[in-house]
Write a sequence for this structure.
């Protein structure tokens, strides 16, 4: 994750993510609006540490690029 | 992310005009919008959502069952109304329960026809299960994960207008007291939006970010944390009555994960809530205040922790449970268990008592509505978790969504758009955007954390007057802190606005709880200083409302006469939840006095 060295729950496989080709599915469906396109890579990533570990981003991703971990505080 | 000039933002205003405005696109909201449009296709219907309608609200990942299906052959509306009257310790408006119960089956059939999948037996009949104390109302939905997709398709077919990422903050009220629309801002662009509407339907869900979870994680809530109590606050400031706020939502959940352990799913398959010895201690896993009181006592009495027990079941059954629980509602719970090294086959699942919230879907705390989903403000309707129809759950949200949509459509037929009061528009603009203009101050996250920690310290039951009085003083200090919050972008502005919603809910929760000087609803309103239930004085609704001077008032509203009166045996059922020693059971199953 290029935004922060801290481990966030939403992990994006930058090779699989097609946000740089115009896909915004995960960004669209997140209830908490925590995902954005990272200007440095053009790929999706987590900007706000406010994840509800609910999984629409992971389930709806057309390239299976996302994996959501349980937030550290709850693990 | 592009840089937004904060000064430009404050000046940019968009105006939208519609007939029916539905605020909240989770469960009740889409149904309300669809039904308003179906009743009168000439109406302009706008569904406004803070997140995205495709995946918003309590059922963003689907639902694993109906908790309150009233299906002919299994239950009658009369039975259901009696069951919920007793489950909610008598404080109900039975007309609203009947309006739900009588429309429950038609709603199931309609959802079925739209493509929502319910469990059926080999004859094609609904496979209803018994979980409640008296009647049989639970209809599993093992393939319920697609429910939002079905709703979305129907919204498109019905040509409802949808707008996403708009955060509504206030209902506009005209000089004559009726609704004129609502105010909102975009949580990405920050654009301020004035929506003129003849009728407004609030369906913003529970106040799910009220107490702080024991984990300390702000977003580790049972409810979708997008639901910060927005609608409770908006209804209050619009002058509507709220009811039963002192009847908190407190749930028995998987510890730390804070999702449902799902005894409703596992119960009919042989699972149950157990103490540390693996013994069943409650007769039924149906969520009620009395059930939570027994849960609390088991934790406090040396037999805790409390667990969900399924490890005695056959492999086939456990696999089935896993398939359902790990693909519906909160599908990440499988990886939570995996991370802890717990397996349903070998381990009991540790449970705990949740933080408090407001939610009529589960308890009774909500915006007061009648059997037509009308609030006390002309043109304002409410449906779903935030509308006070006790124990209404998902199917109740759909039914009241329908009632709200149809009522609002009828109201619009004889109503013109009300004039917008520019003073309300400008006052709210100042309030909402102020954090962007500040150069130095407090982060929304820190203020929210402190507020919710204070909610735990002063409002978590059992309740006592002095604690709640101190809580109110501390909440006033937080109100002053709101004037110090700094936001650097529209996303943080949304979080800042949510802190004010949470604060309004906290204040209402404290004042309603102080007012009702008795104990009722088990743990939900257990008062240490008034430990007995007192029907002579408190068989009434407790209402909260903003008065003409802008102050919060709390008052009694008498109960409407019952339409169906539960008999004495039925009345006692929810008072006797704890499993009794064998000798006592033989003499009488329901021997307790009310």
């Amino acid at each position: 994750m290029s935004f922060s060295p801290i481990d966030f729950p939403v992990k994006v496989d930058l090779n699989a993510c097609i946000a740089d080709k115009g896909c915004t599915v995960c960004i669209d469906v997140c209830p908490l609006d925590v995902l954005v396109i990272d200007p440095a890579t053009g790929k999706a990533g987590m900007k706000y540490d406010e994840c509800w570990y609910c999984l629409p981003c992971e389930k709806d991703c057309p390239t299976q690029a996302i994996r959501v971990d349980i937030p550290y505080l709850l693990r | 992310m592009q840089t937004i000039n904060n000064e430009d933002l404050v000046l940019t205003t968009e105006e939208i005009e519609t007939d029916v405005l539905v605020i909240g696109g989770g469960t009740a909201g889409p149904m309300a919008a669809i039904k308003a449009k179906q009743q009168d296709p000439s109406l302009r219907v706008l569904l406004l959502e803070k997140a995205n309608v495709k995946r918003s609200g309590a059922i963003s990942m689907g639902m694993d069952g109906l908790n309150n299906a009233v299906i002919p052959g299994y239950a009658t509306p009369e039975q259901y109304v009696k069951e919920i009257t007793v489950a909610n310790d008598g404080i109900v408006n039975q007309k609203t329960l009947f309006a739900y119960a009588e429309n429950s089956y038609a709603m199931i059939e309609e959802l079925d026809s739209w493509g929502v999948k319910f469990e059926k037996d080999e004859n094609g009949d609904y496979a209803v299960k018994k979980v409640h104390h008296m009647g049989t109302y639970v209809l599993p939905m093992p393939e319920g994960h697609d429910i939002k997709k079905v709703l979305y398709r129907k919204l498109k077919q019905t040509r409802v207008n949808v707008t996403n990422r708009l955060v509504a903050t206030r209902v506009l009220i005209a000089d004559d007291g009726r609704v004129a629309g609502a105010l909102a801002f975009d949580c990405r662009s920050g654009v301020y939006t004035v929506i003129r509407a003849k009728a407004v339907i609030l369906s913003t869900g529970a106040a799910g970010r009220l107490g702080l979870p024991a984990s300390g994680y702000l977003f580790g809530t049972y409810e979708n944390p997008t639901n910060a109590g927005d609608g409770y606050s908006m209804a209050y400031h619009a002058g509507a009555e709220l009811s039963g706020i002192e009847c908190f939502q407190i749930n028995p959940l998987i510890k730390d994960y804070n999702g449902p352990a799902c005894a409703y799913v596992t119960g009919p398959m042989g699972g149950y809530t157990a103490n540390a010895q693996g013994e069943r201690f409650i007769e039924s896993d149906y969520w009620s205040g009395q059930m939570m009181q027994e849960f609390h006592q088991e934790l406090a009495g040396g037999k805790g922790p409390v667990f969900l027990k399924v490890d005695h079941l056959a492999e086939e059954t456990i696999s089935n449970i896993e398939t359902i629980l790990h693909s519906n509602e909160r599908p990440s719970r499988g990886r939570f268990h995996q991370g802890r090294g717990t397996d349903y086959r070998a381990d009991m699942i540790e449970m705990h008592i949740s933080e408090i919230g407001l939610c009529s879907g589960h308890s009774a705390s909500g915006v007061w509505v009648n059997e037509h989903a009308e609030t006390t403000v002309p043109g304002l309707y409410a449906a779903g978790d935030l509308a006070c129809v006790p124990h209404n759950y998902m199917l109740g949200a759909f039914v009241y969504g329908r009632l709200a949509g149809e009522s609002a459509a009828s109201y619009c037929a004889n109503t013109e758009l009300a004039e917008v009061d520019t003073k309300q528009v400008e006052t709210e603009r100042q309030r909402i955007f102020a954090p962007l203009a500040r150069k130095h101050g407090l982060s929304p996250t820190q203020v929210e954390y402190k507020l919710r920690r204070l909610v735990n310290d002063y409002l978590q039951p059992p309740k006592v007057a002095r604690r709640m009085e101190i809580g109110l003083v501390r909440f006033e200090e937080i109100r002053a802190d709101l004037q110090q919050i700094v936001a650097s972008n529209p996303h943080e502005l949304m979080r800042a606005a949510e802190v004010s919603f949470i604060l309004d809910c906290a204040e209402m929760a404290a004042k309603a709880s102080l007012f009702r000087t008795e104990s009722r609803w088990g743990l939900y309103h257990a008062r240490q200083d008034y430990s007995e239930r007192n029907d002579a004085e408190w068989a009434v609704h407790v209402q909260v409302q903003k008065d003409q001077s802008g102050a919060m008032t709390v008052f009694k509203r008498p109960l409407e006469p019952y339409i169906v009166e539960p008999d004495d045996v039925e009345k006692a059922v929810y008072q006797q939840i704890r499993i009794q020693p064998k000798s006592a059971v033989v003499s009488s199953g329901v021997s307790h006095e009310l």
